[in-house]
Write a structure and sequence with these properties.
384 residues, alpha/beta, 8-stranded mixed β-barrel, 6-stranded parallel sheet, 15 strands, binds ligand C2E, binds magnesium ion
Length: 384
């Protein structure tokens, strides 16, 4: 059965089994556990494991004997040895396993529980990782979200390419797979009523960081993405203002990025919310303009401080004359309306120079910098 991954843990220390069980379970494994030798052979038959995690030196239990038993049964599972005992015990057991023709993975000390987890689950996890709402909810609860900051740079004025701000972009720190892209979980958060909690966390983290940067002399407005679904909550402006105030940050340091999808749910309510956000001195930016069905009329309907041109449109303009004309047209209109524009997805010098000639105020993209963790962002700003 191809899609049935089964994991057998033989370990007498609950914290080790617990950690492994939770993560393996989230990755779609069926998990079997044994804390003693009793009934192990029957359990092995039932489990038919693809992976075995074995502590070879549990009290009153002979792990070596079990390895011999596995060899007799021509076990194909990948076997990880996890031992709190002297490394020698693990090494001996591993050598025996290899001599018996078993599929022995590298053994690791149990103190490095995370390493055991990483090495034994990563390969298979990659094959069938499926983010679940439960996993996401736990990750939010345990604050496993990490905020990266992508610099925005000036394209006009006396100081071209100087940093003018940044966009806060969330990532989820997965214990096995590392940092996961928001594309994997924002939709899931929206579907499962978790987006409010997620956004609160990002806002709290970002405002705390703005405060810290301020103390280091780095004073830059930071943009935070707001899901369209949140623009139905009439208390949103007060909730956001409260978070900003608690961090002792000036509201003008925060830009909320919304897409025009926000106005499709309940336009009247969304406009009302946006206007009240503006009255609190928090800025509003229209994100992803030029993707999907962008409607030009939103430019005068919405109370905007900034317009962000979608990355796909910007990437096209270098090679596609029509895309260039569209960008030029939007920039001309935005200029007359007095709305500064930020071009997203600037990947080449050529695009940056084209945008400069068109007097687009700011740019964001891999050509300047990828999204960066906090310390790298500070270095980037100071180094300019
Ligand atoms: P977005 O708000 O339009 O953010 C810009 C995305 O473009 C980011 O992807 C960024 O890493 C990527 N990007 C920037 N420059 C370039 C470039 O030169 N080339 C290419 N190919 N990509 C570039 P990321 O970080 O994966 O975020 C994806 C989307 O997830 C964001 O799109 C935003 O809609 C959403 N998102 C991220 N963080 C949050 C959050 O805290 N809350 C909510 N609600 N959504 C978020
Ligand atoms: Mg954005
Ligand atoms: Mg965008």
């Amino acid at each position: 059965m191809d899609n049935e991954f089964s994991l057998l843990i033989i370990d007498d220390e609950p914290h080790v089994s617990d950690a492994i069980r939770i993560f393996a379970g989230e990755m779609g494994y069926k998990v079997w556990e044994a804390g003693s030798y009793e009934g192990l052979s029957e359990l092995y038959d039932q489990a038919d494991p693809t992976i075995i995690i074995l502590d070879p030196s549990m009290p009153k239990y002979d792990g070596m004997e079990f390895l011999r038993e596995l060899a007799k049964r021509k076990c194909q599972a990948q076997i990880f040895l996890s031992s709190g005992q002297a490394r020698r015990v693990t090494l001996t057991a591993r050598r025996l396993g290899l001599d018996l023709g078993l599929n022995m993975a590298n053994s690791l000390p149990k103190t490095a529980t995370n390493n055991v987890l990483e090495s034994c689950l990563a390969t298979i996890a990659n094959k069938n990782f499926n983010m679940t709402a439960k996993f996401l909810s736990e990750a939010i609860k345990h604050e496993k979200l990490v905020v990266y900051y992508q610099p925005k740079v000036a394209l006009t004025g006396d100081n071209p390419y100087s940093v003018t701000g940044a966009e806060a972009l969330v990532r989820l720190n997965h214990p096995v797979l590392g940092l996961l892209s928001p594309d994997l979980f924002i939709g899931l958060a929206e579907e499962n009523d978790l987006i409010g909690q997620l956004t609160n966390l990002v806002l709290k983290e970002t405002t705390k960081q703005i405060k810290k940067w301020g103390e280091q002399g780095i004073v830059l407005p930071i943009s935070v993405n707001i899901s369209p679904l949140m623009l139905t909550d009439l208390f949103l402006p007060d909730k956001i203002a409260a978070i900003i105030e608690a961090a002792e940050v000036d509201p003008s340091m925060i830009v909320l990025e919304v897409t025009e999808k926000a106005t499709m749910v309940d336009a009247g309510k969304a406009m009302d919310i946006l206007k009240r956000i503006r009255l609190k001195n928090i800025s509003v930016s229209l994100d992803d303009f030029g993707a999907g069905y962008s409607s030009i009329v939103e430019l005068y309907r919405m109370p905007l401080n900034e317009l962000k041109l979608d990355g796909a449109l910007i990437r096209d303009m270098e090679h596609n004359e029509d895309a260039f004309i569209v960008v030029r047209g939007i920039l001309a209109m935005a200029r007359e309306l007095g709305i500064p524009v930020c071009a997203e997805g600037v990947e080449t010098l050529k695009t940056a120079e084209m945008l400069r000639r068109l007097k687009c105020q700011t740019g964001q993209g891999y050509y300047f910098s990828k999204p960066l963790p906090v310390c790298d962002f500070s270095k980037f700003v100071v180094g300019r």
